[in-house]
Structure formats: structure tokens, C-alpha cells
Amino acid sequence: MLKYGLIAILFTLAWCRVVASAQQDLCPAGIASDKLICLIPQSIGVNESLLVSSSNSSQFTLSSLNRNLRSLSSSAAEESALLPLASPPSGIVFTWDPAAKILVPSEGSLGPVLADRAETIGKHKVFLGVSYQHFSFNRIDGISLKQLPETLTLPDDSADGPPNVTCSINGLNPGPSNTGQCGFIRDVITTSTRIDLKSDEVTTFITFGLTDRIDVSAAIPITNIRMQASTTATIIDNAQSGVFSFPIVPGVCGGVSGGFIVPCLSSSSSDSRSVSGIGDITLRVKGTAWQSDSAALALGVDIRTPTGDPLNFLGTGAAGVAPFVIWSFRSRVSPHFLASFAVNGSSVIAGDTNVGSKAKLPGQLKYASGADVRVTKWLTTAVDMIGQQVYQAGRTSKATVTTPGECLDPSGNCDPVQGLGPNVALPSLTSSTGTFTTTSLSIGVKAKPFGANLIITANTLFALSNGGLRSQVVPLLGLSYMF
Amino acid sequence: MKSHVNLLMLFVAIPLSQAISNAPGFAQPARARVGATAMAIISGHPSATVATLPVNAAANAPASSNGITVNVPQVVPFGAQTYNDRMQITNLTVTLNFAATTPVTLTFISPDNFSGASNQWQVTLSPGMPVDSTCRSDRKAVKCHDFPVPSNLTSCLTCTDNITIVPGSGSGGSMQFVVKFALLSNYNVGGSGSGRCASTQSQDPKKYQILPDQAVTGACVESYSKHLDQCTSNVNLIHLSPGDGARVDGATCSR
Q1: Most exposed residue of A52, A174, A323, A457, measured as fewest CB within 10 angstroms of its CB?
Q2: Which of B70, B67, B47, B48 has its CA nearest to residue B58?
Q3: Who among B162, B189, B235 is closest to A243 (CB)?
Q4: Does the ipTM exceed 0.90?
């Protein structure tokens, strides 16, 4: 009763937090936010590193940069909150000994690590476990987080060119809209952002055998996430006019030379944050629907509660329900198969962070297939292929932006007679929505070195595909005990 | 009486962007979009060939070998970025005419004090002298000089006044030079936050002296400012009307 009361309180608190933060810019300009989801967009906004002083009214619009980086941030938030948890109750299975008329530990393997098996732990048995996983994310949708490029061009400008001429990079090239007094429109800013995102997750599992065939479990993750975003922005002064400059920092960037203000064409900024807290608590009910001497089929459902702070990548900010089915075969080599489909509610991290609106989190089809092998009575190895298909999720991909070539006129007047360089394609990012698949290989061991009900688990998850936010290698250590 | 006319006064109203483009020695992208007009005064001493002096000049100096004093008023309180929507005067152009083509030696005296450095710079100019490629602010410059950071502004690393001299293109006198002052000690271009571009001119007025070793037959000063958001750029200076800018002390200047 107390447990249900606590869960209801956590539900209410999470709901209140999400509602309170809705319908407003989650990362407002000029106001430093302590939320991780704002770290990337604000690393180039709040710190003024992209404030460009100019000699005219034209300014580089940061909207595309914000749009893509915010999308990246949201994707990171979504996917870091949907990381796989170790299997809650997979350890020792107790079976009914009809001769002794008691439950006895089975002689089979110790079960899989990140997958699960169909058997339940046994009536009134309690499984308590804790696992630690370390994630060091290095790619999102196949793009290295160490170098995320963006290219910014100037919007059309009717104020700073000759009378009745709108300066534009989209006009006839060369032409009056992009040469002469409009030469400045050729200037470009390129940015390169590096993101270091690491996560340490300690998850506590509690499983209780309600009956011989029904378990209830809870997985309570506590996570520490560290994130650093570093951005370097460079003005490409294609007009050679020095019109645009980052704020001059004497001795560091730009300055004065011979009475001439040397524009600051490069600017770097870096920001980092670390948060810790409880993640989304997952509740599980699993029941063995069919069982023979060596095989079993279980049905169940995972209910994810939005107890983690979604804006700090600790949780999803939305409840989720994931019915699952598990089949497993018990022998010295025990194959198993798991499939589940998660349906999620709406969350701010899936919505538009510019206005704080919510959108539905992507659904996920998860599957795991593998086998656990009893090497000795006290040692089991487990190998699994773990896949996940994420539907209509935010995606990031590389694109190119065609920028106009430089003016060869050194005076800054961009006289077309003096020549123009060719157009240049520069790398950038673009955001979209789509379905992607991730595949990972899990290899681990479980050991019962002291002969009792204490199990030590070690596992490594290797990323085999590029979809979504990926950590190339995820180590896991666990300790569990069956009462 | 007509032969004794010693004052020629013209009021010329031209678009400011055109005025900037026309400013001698300022090779700037004509991108200013300010639609205001500038009131220009040309006045002159009897011995000056005033008609060839640039329009928009604030004043002419009397012919004198004692030199001229350029008077730069403080228009923004020390430490403030703007005052009445204006920034401190940031640039000056002084056009000097000489009667002869013989080399002339000019001594510039800065009003600032410098730790361990002279506040004077002496230079000899002659017609047809070669371009000095080390002068960054103008590709036609024949001489240039940076005064160091004034001793009262040591924390402002960019507060260095620069003088760049360019041969004049007008036909005033027999020899003409344009002296361009970049008064970077007047505003903190390298500052940060509210200190960026804030006024660092503590003297009111700030007076630069130019001492020639031969008579100056005409001298005009033009003044330029900037918009606050343009203070770190070299282009699109705002041309100030004579009443708002610097002047030459002692010159007869009337409207």
C-alpha cells in the first residue's frame, strides 16, 4: 500500500513539473538555464559567442543553428532516457521439487543479462539486484559528436544595399544583389560543435514472486549525466570588408594593428554541466503463460513512470507502456527470445523546445535474441543480439549548404570586375523525423562464486549500427541476491 | 571690398553616404544607409586656396608655421557607451595644404602621457614619396604611427591612437597631405559587456597639435563617429556635421 502511495506521489510530482514547464521557451535567449537540454543551444547563445558586430543592420540568423542544435538536444534527451536496462529478475530460478515439496534452485544457467527468460522466480521469492552501466556517447545517427558542423548564411537584406536592391545570395550570381554594396551578403559563418556526453547509471531491481507464475518488479535507475558542449564559430569574410566581427578580445582574438581594427573572425565557447538524479522508474508484471519441462512462454508488461527530469536527460517526461513476450528454453545451452513494443505518451523533449510544447515520444519495438550457456554450476555466459526500432523519432543528418564564392576585390567593395571565387559547398546539419533501427551485441558472464544466491554479473554491449544516439561500448557490472 | 573678402562660406547639403564616399583617403564600401544630410562649411583664410579643400570641412586654419591644434570635444562621458545616441568621436581626417613642394616636416604632439614613450612623432613628407606597405589602414599611406596606450588607460589594450598620412588628391596649394587619425584611445573597442566601445576619452577637449616647419595654407578637419554596434569595424563611419565634430583651434569658422 505504501509502495502504491509513493508511486502516486512520484507520478503527481513529475506531472506537475512537466505542466509547469510547458508552453514557454525552455531555453530562452539571454537566460542561462541549468537544464542539460539547453546546454547545446545556449553554448552558442547565452555566452554571446555568436554575437557578431556588424557595420550594417544585416545579421546572421541563428534560427537554423538553433533549430538543428535544439533538435539534436531533443534527440539526445529522448534517446538517453530510453536506454536499455539490465533484465530485472533474471538470475536463479526456483523450481518446485515435488519429492521434497519445496522450491529449490534450478540447476540451469543463471540466465541472460540484458534480455530475460520466461520463468518466474518462484512464489514469495525476492530478488534484489543492483547494476552499474557506463555510457560514453560518441555518435548520433552516425555523425560523430566530436564534430557537428553548421553553416550560416545571411538572409535577404533590403536595408543595406543600394536603393531598391535587395541583397541576396539567391539572386543572379554575379549580380547587383550579391556584389558591390551587396558584397557583404556573401559572408558566411561556419560552426563546429563538439559534444561530450557521458552517463553513469546505477539501477536497483526488486522482484517479488507473487505466485509461482507471476512476478512483479521495479527498476529504479539513478543516473549521473555529464555533458560538455564546445563550439567554434568562424566568419568567412568573403567580401573582404571586415564588416562582421565577433567581439574583440585583446590578446586572444582580433585587436588593433596600425590604426586598423582587425576583425575577430573566430570565436570559441564551451560550457559543461553535470546532473544526477532518479530516472524513470519502470514497473514490470511478468507471468508465465505456458511452461513445459524445458521451455516456457511469458507475457508481461513494463510500465515506465515519468519520474526522471526530462530536461536533464534523466527521464522521458512521459509514461510508457510496453507489453512483451518472452520465450526461453532451459538446458545447458538456453536460447531465449524477447520482443516488446513500447507506446509512449507526450513529452516536452519530443516537442518544440522553443515554445515548450509537447509531442508524442516515438514508439519502440525492442527485441533480443540469444542464448545463455551454463559453463559450470557457478558460471554462465550470455550472448544476445539486441535490436530496437524507433518509429518517427527526431533524426539528425549531414547536409551541405552552397555558399557564394569570395570577392577577389581586396578593397571590400566587391567589384565583380576584379573577379569572384566559385561557389563553395560547406557541411551542415539538418533535422528530420524518421524511423531508425539500432542493433547491439551483448556479451556477458554471470557468476555465483560463493555457491549461495549471490550473483555477480559483468557484461559489455557493443553497438553494431549507427542509428540514434550511440555509445560504442557499454560496460555493465551487477550484483544480485535471491532471498 | 570684394578683394578683401576673407570668408567664403558655402552650405552644401549632400547625402551622408555620398559624403563618406567622397571623404579623401577613405576607401570604404559605400554601404552606409543613413539617410540624413550633412551641413558643410567651407571657409578660408586669404592665403588659402580654399576652393580645393574638401567639402564638409569644419574649419580652416590661418596660414601659420606655428602649427595648428585639432580640438576634439568629449561628447560621451568617460565610461559610458553613448550619450544622446552618440558615440565618442572615433576618427578624424585633417587635410593640410602647403604653398611649396619642398619637403615638410610635421611634428605631431599627442595630448596623452605615455609611460616610457614620447608623446611626439615627427615625420618628413615630400611629393611622390613611396607607399609604406606596413600601414594597414590605407593602402596609399606613405607614413603611419601608433602612439602607445596612454598611461591612464593601461587596462585598455586597444586604446592606441594611430596617425596615417596619405597624399592628398585635391589641388589645394602646391602640396597636399591627408592626415587620418584613428582615435582608438577614445573608445574601448576591445572591451567586454557594457565596457565594450565605452568612451575612454578623459580630456575635454582632447587637443592634438600638428607643428609644420613651413606655412600651412589651409587645414580642414572632418570628424567621424560610429554606431555602437559597429564599433569594432573599420567601415561605415558616420560623418559628423561640423557643429558636432572636431575643429581647428584659432581658425575663423562661421556659418
Answers
A1: A323
A2: B70
A3: B235
A4: no
